[in-house]
Amino acid sequence: xxxxxxxxxxxxxxxxxxxxxxxxxxxxxxxxxxxxxxxxxxxxxxxxxxxxxxxxxxxxxxxxxxxxxxxxxxxxxxxxxxxxxxxxxxxxxxxxxxxxxxxxxxxxxxxxxxxxxxxxxxxxxxxxxxxxxxxxx
Length: 137
Known about the structure:
By secondary structure, the chain is of the alpha/beta class.
């Protein structure tokens, strides 16, 4: 099974089952533990408060089958701040990002949490203010 975790207003990619994040919770209704071959959850970590990121990652890990992959991401606090300071992002765009986020995190820190959950980090990428981590169980 391939799932795409999105916000309430988001659309899942074709060929993926849509799973919604709402109020810092992922609705895994109908999805058993160890069932998912691929979970695409880019940019969702910003929808969780900073103190709930580990719980979010742990719940995702439970759904991934052995050999399955997870792609997860969010807003990187360090690159966001650098972009604002260096005028690489407008004040209006920066305000919109802050308004849309419950938190920002650091790609290295999140990769470490993923490793502690016994997932193998395959790659990390930063694109603008966003990061993406690919991991395998």
